[in-house]
Each structure stands twice: as C-alpha cells, then as structure tokens.
From TrEMBL, chain A:
Native organism: Cucurbita argyrosperma subsp. sororia
Keyword Transcription regulation: yes
Domain Vps72/YL1 C-terminal: 73-102
Keyword Transcription regulation found: yes
Lineage: superkingdom: Eukaryota
Major location (coarse): nucleus
One Gene Ontology CC term in the entry: Ino80 complex
Name of this protein: INO80 complex subunit C
Keywords: Nucleus, Transcription, Transcription regulation
TrEMBL record, chain B:
Keyword Nucleus: yes
GO aspect biological process, one term: actin filament-based process
Positions with biased composition (Basic and acidic residues): 366-382, 413-437
Keyword RNA-binding (UniProt): no
Primary gene name: LOC111458360
The protein, known as: Actin-related protein 5
Pfam families hit by this protein: Actin
Amino acid sequence: MEPEVIEAELVLPTHLNFKRIQMYEKYPKGQSRGRHWKHLKQILQAENYHNYSSDEPNYVNIESPPSMHPCKKICDITGYEAPYYDPRTTLRYANADIFKVIRSLPNEYVQRYLAMRNAAVVLR
Amino acid sequence: MPFVSEIQRQSDFNHFPSTTPIVIDNGASSFRIGWAGESDPRVIFRNIVQRPRHKATGETVTIVGDHDPSLMKYFDCTRSGPRSAFDGNVVYQFENMEYVLDFGFDRLGATGPEIDHPILITECVCNPVQSRSKMAELLFETYGVPSIAYGVDAAFSYMYNQQLGICDKDGLAICPGFTATHVIPFIDGEPLYKGCCRTNIGGYHVTDSLKQLLSLKYPHHMTQFTWEKVEDLKMEHCYIASDYASEAQLFQKGTKEVEEKTRCWQLPWIPPPTEEPPSEEEIARKAAIKEKQGQRLREMAEAKRSSRINELENEVRGLEFLLHQLVQVSEVDIPSFLSETGYVSKQEIESALTKTTQSLRKAKGERKDDQAETEDHTDATNEKFHLINVPDDMLSPEQIKEKRRQLFLKTTSEGRQRAKQKRYEEELERERRSQLDEERRMENPELYLEELYVKYKELSEKVEQRKRIKTNGGHTNGNNLSGVGRGERLNAAQRERMRLLTTAAFDRGKGEDTFGARDEDWQLYKLMSKDNNDDDDEGPDEDEAELVRLSSRLQDIDPTFVLKSDVQPTEVPKFRPLTKEDFQIVMGVERFRCPEILFHPNWIGVDQTGLDEMTGVSLRRLPSYSDDIAERLTNSVLITGGSCLFPGMRERLEAGIRMIRPCGSPIRVVRALDPVLDAWRGASVYAAASQFTTQTFSRMDYYEKGEDWLRRYQLRYSL
C-alpha cells in the first residue's frame, strides 16, 4: 500500500478488535455465497401484512395514494409548459422550435428522455 | 451547502462509561455517529461502501464513505461502484451495513473486545420487522451491544425542535429525505403512524433527474457529471419556484430577470493555439520539397522508360538474328532448330518481331501515323477486298465464305471512315460558331454577356425542372422537397410501378375476378416487370450539353461567374473551432425543474401525491379527525430532512397547504433549526435522558419476546 493511503486510513482493516465475529469468519474467502439478502420487495412479501389488521400502520399501507390532481404536462426537453404532444416519439413539447429539436433527436436520446418519466419502451 | 464529511478518528472512546449510549443516525444518504448528550455527532460520512481492487497488490479492499478522490487513483473501481445497504429507505444488505458500522465504530475510537454501550439507532417509519431483527442480530452478535433502541429520525427532529419551542406538541412533520418523503402527524408529542404517509421520492431523485437532464443537454460533457458533482450543483443552485408555471413562462419569454437567474458553470477550457499563417520561407520550403519530389518521380519514370526501351531493343535484335539464321537453315530442319527457342514457325517469329517493334516505337514515344495508315488502307483496299466484285457463281464455297468476311470488314472500315468525317465536320461547325460568337461579343460585350446569362438561366431551370419531374412525378407540392418519407426515395417511374403492384395486390378478389378477360389486361405484367427507368429522350440531353457549353463559355468570359452546382456544397457546415461557450454548462429551468419533482412525483413516473397534497392525505388518515385537530396540526408544520434545504421550500409548502385547507384556517410552516443534523441531536438528547433505559431492549428480550413483539416495538418519544 502506498504511504499516503495508509496515512489516510482509507482502507477498512480486516480485523477489528471490538468485533466478536470478524468479517473474514462470517464470510470466508473463496467460498461462493450466492445471494444472502432479500430485496425490499421480497422482504415486504415475507412480512405477511395481509395477516394483520389493516388499521395497523405498516410499511406498505403508509404509502401515499396517487395524486387527485391531473398531472401537469411539461416539455420533456425544456421544462416549459407543454401544450403539444408528438405522436411519433410520444414526447411532449412546448413550441415549434423544440418540435424541430425532437424530430432531429436520435432514438436513443428520445428513449432516455422518456425513461426520465418512466415512459420508455422497455424490451425484455 | 456542500456535503460535510467528518471522519477523523476519535481518541476518547474509553473515557465514556459503559452506560453512555452511542447514538447513530443511519440515514440513506449519510451515517452519523456520536455520544448521547453531546450537541454534534462525532463522525459523519456518506453511507456507501466500495470494494475496489488495490492496483499494486491486486487485493480487494473495503472503503467506506467518501474519500479524497486523489487517493482513489491507486484503486481499480471499474468493477465495483459505490454500494449502499439501503433499498429505498430500508436496510436490506447487512454485509454492507456491517462494513459501515465497522467503519463508524472504528472512527469513534472503539478498541475494546466489544461495544459495551447501549445503542440508539434510527430507522424508517414502519420498518419491516425483518430488517429490524437483522439489525438487532448484527448489533448483538457481532458487536456485543448490551441494549438497543430504535427510533424514527423525523420524530427525533420534531421532538428536538419542539423542545426548542419552534413547533408545538401537536403538529405535522414533513420530512423530505434522500429516498423517501414522509409526513407524520404528532399529537401530544407522539407520532401517529396511522396518519403517516410516504411518497417514494427524495433528494436522490432530484439529483438523478438533474444528472440525466444535464447529460442529455450536454452529451459532450457527460463525463463531467459525476454523482458527487451533480449533488454539489443541486445543493448550490437548485431552488423551489413559488409557482412553477409562471416561473417557467418567465424563462420561456427570456426576460432580463432570467439572465440573473441563469447559472453558468465554466468547465476548464484552454483556448486552442492560434495558427499563424505560414511564413514566406515556409511556403518556399514546402514548394521546394514538392518540386524535389516531382523531380524524383520524373527521373524514376524516365529510368523505367529507358530500361524498357533497352529491353525491347535487345529482343528485336535477338529476333532479327534468329530470322537471319533461319534463312540459312533448310526447311526440314526448322522445327528442330526452333525447338530450343520456344517458337514454332517462321511466321510466329515474324509476328513477334512486328509486335516488339511496335511496342518499341510506342515506348520511344513515336505516334503511329494515322494518315499514313489510312492511305495505306485505300491503296490496299482493292487488293484486300479483291473478291467483293466477283460474282458468287464464279467462286468456290470457300471463296464465298472469304468474300462474306471481306464484305463485312469493308463495311466496318467504311463506317469508321464516315464517322471520322462527321467528327471532322462537327469540329469545323463548332469552330465556325465560336467564331461567330466571338464576333458578336466583340461588337457589344455587355449585351452579349447578358444574353448569355439569360440563356443559361433558362436552360438550367429547364434541366432542373426535368430532374424534379423525374423524381417527383410532376406533383410539385412543396412538401415533397423537404420531407423525408419513403415516397421521395423513388422516382416517378418507380412509384408508378409500385402503385401498379399494390393495386394489383389489393384490388383483386373484390367481387368477380375478370382479370385476363381482355387482352389489355396482360399489358400490366409488362409494365410491372421492370423498373421503367430508361431515362431515354435525347432532347434534354441536348439541353444539358448546351448548358455545359454555356457555363464553360461563361466561365471563360466572366471571372465572377459561379456554377450553380458549385454553390450548394458550400452550405455544408464547416468545422467550427470550439469556443469558451462550448464548455459552459448553463442551468436555467433545471434549477427549479428538478426539485419540483418533490411536488409532482408524476414527472419522473412515480404515481403518488406530492409534498403539498401529502399533508391533506395525512390529515384525512387520522383516526380522530376533526377540524379542531386539523387546525391545530397545520398551525405547527415542521419541515426537516435534507431536501427541505432548497430555498423557497417553506413558502411553497405554506401556499400548497393553504390551497387544501379551508379558507382562513391558521397555517404556520416552520423549518427545523438544522434540517440535516436535528434528527441526530434530538436522538442524542433523548438518549441522554434518564428514562432512556426504559425504552431499550436487551439481547435477552430480543430472543425471548419473539418477532411479534419486535414488530410492535415502538419508542415513546415524550418521556
């Protein structure tokens, strides 16, 4: 290790005195462990919230509902108010100049703009 | 406000008695750890883990938090980016969590065999019991912690500010965090999770959308937009517009105000060295080099030519010598004599000789004298074609064959002659015309030039028109010229063919099929069979030739004349040297567009209510809802959490809440004293209180009381 790296104590030591079980004991080297954790979705599924009264607050039912107001439409490129919508790219745009820009955009960029509001075409 | 990271190792760990709790604010963006009763956390760092490879030794190491970027050059981070223990606002990867805790305790100065202090650690609202128990297990088993308490960061912050008199016992805490935003109602200083609501949007999403927008706007500077940099930009420049629509309109109109609101980030840019025009010497030197090279090439060509001539001469001499020798050899011996040379007969040698002499002459640069040859021809014609004038019946079959051949040869040679004659006459005619032209020009040069121009214009238009018709099929609606549909790619004839094919394909089968009853029907196939693109007719060709002649004439006479076709290519954008402006990142609408997603999560595809509406949702969810309670709550709204640092947040929220509340109801929105650190401070105060021990649970409790108890475990904040 370079002296300045040691000086900055950048690297977490592998052995720490205050630990009862060291990291290398818990996850021995060279052993494939696979995935040993669950995603949030799986955690929530395992919680079995449906077995409990819905009056009790839990992680799922405290989520806020969809908005009651209609979604404000803004131009995907500039952020201005967007009265128009391009049926070819499905992008929203504010005026003719931006429409020109949209039509000259390569498809990859169009998809990235759409992905920003989670409307991109996803091929699986 | 830039991101603060304090990772100095503390030395006074052993001075604290084992009853002093350690307080941890385990936020999704940053990890803060310190001692209960103190006013500030001791260690703060970003809650991330990287496991890069050390370049020199090749071993995988663990690096927690943010570090000096200049030191990261010793590590290969390409295969592992920064990782977090959080999914949303829930801890799910306890391996990463362990690294973070290791680092936190290490920097707090822990040395003993275990962490012998009670721990107060924050969690999200309604943390799933799985995450809770895993965390408890980790702390008990690995660190030997005697007891644990879990609390919610926003509640601690509210409590802290309530103690300072900033908000009341009843109120709302609005907490836009890093990955999620919560609204929690408080009654008598206790959070009511029943009335709580969460939208999965926070500072992370703001930074992410800013990063996306900027890299889409400036694709050339994509590498500049690292997460850390964009986070800094967000904290420095983003604000919340009091009314998004009117603010955006302001920018759309581009008024003077806007210029002040637009921020510009100048990337490092070095002006390119200005190229001086090459000096006289330089030009002369270059010309000399060029000349020298030309000379060398010429010399090489000359040498090659002379060597070829030499070779050919040798060959000719050899062949002549061979012929000479042959004369002395008797007829019978010829084959045996020639077997060594590779020739079979005397004729062959002779033809080879003529061939070589011809090529020799060519190499020497003597042109074959055409005139002489033709004269030769005329003389020879009679004897060459001696059979032509003899009637057929006087000839043998063989001779008849010969006669036919001669006839053919004669007609072709005569044809050639005639063509030559015609060319000659044309030449004369052209000369005569140009003579005439010249005379007219001499009479009145200006008029002549004008006439020429008019003629040129007419012709070029005509040719142009023809071309257009050929491609567009005469439908000259202006759209066709600029559009790029598939129709424009075919010319008129091809399109006609496509039309025929499609009508043939779709019209058939309707009603009775009478195709083929009439003979004309079959013409269709002829039309369809090929692209009728024989661009035939001679008339236009003449026009084009005339056009070429005119333009060359004009070029001769008028030095200012520019060919029409030459004009178009100059419109192609030339290479433009990069300027300072190309290295500027301009942030206009983005400054308030990105934070606006907190109010309109729909803009990034999260179908949930925004900050202001959440207040209404939260109030409606209260089990004991009454106007009285709602009024009391909205009279003390506390905003806390990192994302409420945006300027304009308080005003906007106040306006938003006013919209959903009945007219005249009291509304008071206050910002926490320190939206970022108040959660830790509140927790520190709480853990220092003497009743804190009643709220903790020990290892024994954890294993005896079971999961269901842990699920319902909840801290009492008002002690």
